[in-house]
Amino acid sequence: MLKLGLIVAALVFCANTAWVRQEPIASQAASSAAHVVSSTQTQQKNPVKPTPESTARARMIYGYDCAACHGVKGDGKGDLAKDIALTVPDFTDPATLKNKTDEELFNSIKDGKGKMPAEGDRAKTEELWGLVLYCRSFAQKTVPAQGTTAK
Ligand code: HEC
User: Fold this and answer.
1) Distance from Cα 150 to the centre of ligand 1, integer Å
2) Which of 30, 51, 92, 142 has its CA at a distance of 20 to 30 angstroms from the CA of residue 13?
3) For residue 27, what pLDDT band results from cuts at 50, 70 and 90?
4) HSE-up (13 A, CA, CB side) for residue 25
């Protein structure tokens, strides 16, 4: 009887830890998804706040998919842009993106614009918002993209 009790206790314990491990991720995803939906409806601001993780992620995607044209520094002088003589906006100039809303930039990155190919489903919604922030960061004096001291 005592043995059975121990087994039951052990099972309950395992089930609990499994639940504890999964729950925060699921609820995080749900709340951020809700956030994104509600804010895209109301013509808005970027729902994603930059964290060292989201910035690192944006930097990685940017390096793979964007730097060839936009340049590692965001100056629009990537190798591919040079090779095909493509004029790419200079994000280091604060005037470039100043009058664009976050939503406009989000849509341009997701769906493409002019000669720029669509990122489409290659990046998740949060990652696209992260890229919006990352593109804007090139025009800031203190580039968060390079200031990831938190660790
Ligand atoms: C093949 C070259 C190329 C690649 C790759 C590319 N872009 Fe662009 N991007 C451009 C060009 C050209 C424009 C200017 C488009 C226009 O205004 O007609 C542009 C414009 C933009 C703009 C301004 C959009 C606006 O609404 O004015 C943003 C933001 C941007 N790109 C981000 C990105 C990001 C993020 C990536 C990677 C996921 C990326 N681009 C990949 C060439 C590229």
Assistant:
1) 29
2) 30
3) very low
4) 5
